[in-house]
Amino acid sequence: MTIYVVQEGDTVDEIAAKTGADLNTLLETNQLEYPYRLAIGQALLLFAKGERQMRKAVKGRPLAESNGYAYPFISEWILGETLPFLSELSVFSYGFTAKGELLPPTLDDKWMVEQAIKTKTSPTLTLTPLGVDGRFNNSLVSALVRQESVQMTLLRNLVGEMTQKGYGGVNIDFEYVLSEDRDAFTDFVRRATNLLNPFGYYVTVALAPKYSDNQAGLLYEGMDYGGLGQAANGVFLMTYEWGYTYGPPMAVAPINQVRRVVEYALGRIPAKKISLGVPNYGYDWPLPYQRGVTKAVTLGYTEAIQRAVFYGAPIRFDEESQSPYFRFWQYGVEHEVWFEDVRSYEAKFDLVKMYGLKGIGVWQIMRLFRAGWELLDYQFQIEKND
Questions:
Q1: What digits encode the pLDDT tens for the residues 148-195?
Q2: Closest residue by Cα to residue 365 from 83, 62, 168, 27
Q3: From CA 295, how far away is CA 239, in angstroms rounded?
Q4: What is the pLDDT of residues 116-151, one digit of tens each?
Q5: pTM of the shown model
Q6: Which of 277, 206, 265 lies closest to 240 in space, CA to CA?
Q7: Which amino acids are annotated catalytic?
Q8: Nearest 5°: phi and psi at 321?
Q9: What's the rounded Cα separation, in Å, for the pair 62 and 225?
């Protein structure tokens, strides 16, 4: 396996010839369509002839687990292309009322559960305190964690739903937990684990990215890494959104910041309980950036590459953040794009291997980034054994 960075004048045929890569695999893996235009600085994942087929024929246990989040409106084709690379599929999301009644997604999710089971992927129910406005509601969290009777009602409803649909576990994704609810939230996760594990269901919890015990901010103050790591079967570090829709242009998941979160977490949680969050998206910001005014557009890997190709923008790579970016002009407005490619993914996968983490979790898999999944498979030799 080779990561090749496109140089000026390169064509796909020339790249395949000089690297020994299989041309058809190159085109498929990197989602290149005729006339196969490339951007200078674009990173391609290359395999030697027969390498991918030979690797897939080798049996063995996976070196890491892989999870992907998806909404029920995901394309059936994209889900089918992605599931072979996943050990876990997290369906986003289920809500609940202040009385503990479970609120399923608006669209049917059972077909996703059935597809996951067919590919030996464990389906996970994602539980969120989303209000009617689609935002995380910390008042709803307070109503739950401060009343044991409401918790018991919700947990009974979860068991019924997971049993009926075939879910293997629940991922508790509560964001903006109030600082005064910190210990009560940890107790709820512990209660969920103690009650659901005997039924054969695992419990994981999503954690906002922290660097220190006393980190200020609504995202962080209600998250007790040590307590939650002990209470749950596993944790998911949401190590992304440094670059975000209303923030200044920058990498979504700069490796230097991701490493800080991982090292903090390792001081409080066993490595084999930690899954590293990886973003499958980027942003396009119009310039100049004005706080409170500028709004970035979300885009996937292929959309970012198409923009770079269309506007003739060379892709650069920031060594500190280990992330690709480029700039282009459109209708008199300059734009700055930061996204993920196989180089930025490789840096994150290296962290998983370096620290012996449980695996990775991708937010989210609604857009297909085939080279990222092929790299994951190569790095960790994913194999779903009977």
A1: 999 999 999 999 999 999 999 999 999 999 999 999 999 999 999 999
A2: 83
A3: 21
A4: 999 999 999 999 998 777 888 999 999 999 999 999
A5: 0.95
A6: 277
A7: 175
A8: -90, -10
A9: 27
